[in-house]
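User: Last request for today: this protein with flavin-adenine dinucleotide, please.
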Amino acid sequence: MSIWYFSEEEKMLAESVQSYAQAHLAPKIEHLDEIEGFNAEAFKKLGEMGLLGITVPEEFGGAGMGAVAATIAMEEMASVDAASTLSYLAHSILCVNQLGSSASKEQKLKYLPKLISGEHIGGMGMSEPGSGSDALGMLTRAEKQSDGNYKINGSKSWITNGPNGDIFYCYAKTGPNKKDVSSFIIEKGMPGFTTGKKFKKMGMRASPTGELWFSDVMVPAANRVGEEGSSVKSMMKNLDIERITISGISLGIARSCIEIATKYSQERKQFNKPIGAFQQIQERLAEATSWYEACRALTYQAAKTWDLGLMTGREASMMAAKAKLQSAQMATQVSLDAIQILGGYGYTREFAVERHMRDAKLIEIGAGTNEILRIIIARQLLGSDVVDTQ
Ligand SMILES: Cc1cc2nc3c(=O)[nH]c(=O)nc-3n(C[C@H](O)[C@H](O)[C@H](O)COP(=O)(O)OP(=O)(O)OC[C@H]3O[C@@H](n4cnc5c(N)ncnc54)[C@H](O)[C@@H]3O)c2cc1C
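Assistant: Here's the final one, the structure of the complex with flavin-adenine dinucleotide:
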């Protein structure tokens, strides 16, 4: 069911992404989840569909749509395959949206065409082995050279599309202070830049996650995005749209779980009755569908607010944090409830609910843990003199 203010274009987008997911993701996800593979073919198809630059203005080859559209795409895709959706998010929001919003015209003209066509896969490097939640504690350094270019040393960890990506939007320190953060466009193949190990994961197994290593990587000044030392604001802003759109992944997972559990409750008989006749099963389903709808309303409200520019700064961050905090917890709980409803079958890989539960848990960690999101929300309510992470 679509949200009342979805435009005709957005409704059509939902239908076409659902058809795409059924045709290109559904047949492969079980196998790819098993072997921790990546659906490269389906990724390329998204380029043909014009979805890889979903939020980029049309003048740069994008679809010129916004956070609502991107969240719709995430929800529909994730109802089938959340892992491929996570790789799509890292590409289209973490890398491409950030280039579309922050890069110069020359940088956009150089990098966006291949990212939008699907020839190149993008990712974003912020987190490091020693700094996840404390993102500004990053140690990767970019030293300005006498010729104006930069030498980068350090490493990034848990990078979605790290092992298979071509272009990375990376953050590094360019000064002694916590906020001296600059952005750089890093290309696979730059001397000294390597991708480290690919992590073995509990869920999101068809989305490759890995390390990025920088050993005296010489990066031209032309690859610095924005002014030196001025990236904190744009980094945080892109985290906000990431949190809104990743909530779409939680919604898609939950929706699929509710559909599977509802059908199962109608068909599975115990004590000569469909298990849906038992009040405890009804209660779980009623709670699940209500929480899902509440999170859906909150998430699309956050997305619409973003698109209309109704909130900025910390207020916008709080809105995005609320949507993700609730949607992520909801999807984990709904997937666990679906497993419970399916009993022994729910615990096996016969049904998608087991994969959905493993995938859902990631969203309580990536793009800001539940704990960090609660801090963002509480800080906005109480003021940063009361709530501080330092
Ligand atoms: C599959 C996957 C994909 C990812 N993709 C990317 C990516 O593409 N790019 C990228 O840059 N990063 C990515 N990440 C990294 C992700 O954003 C971090 O894992 C996340 O921010 C948490 O950081 P951490 O793992 O270092 O945990 P930590 O920060 O070490 O946190 C450990 C625990 O302590 C809690 N904690 C920390 N600080 C506080 C505090 N002040 N108050 C209360 N509790 C606190 C946390 O909530 C958590 O429960 C990805 C992670 C995963 C698992």
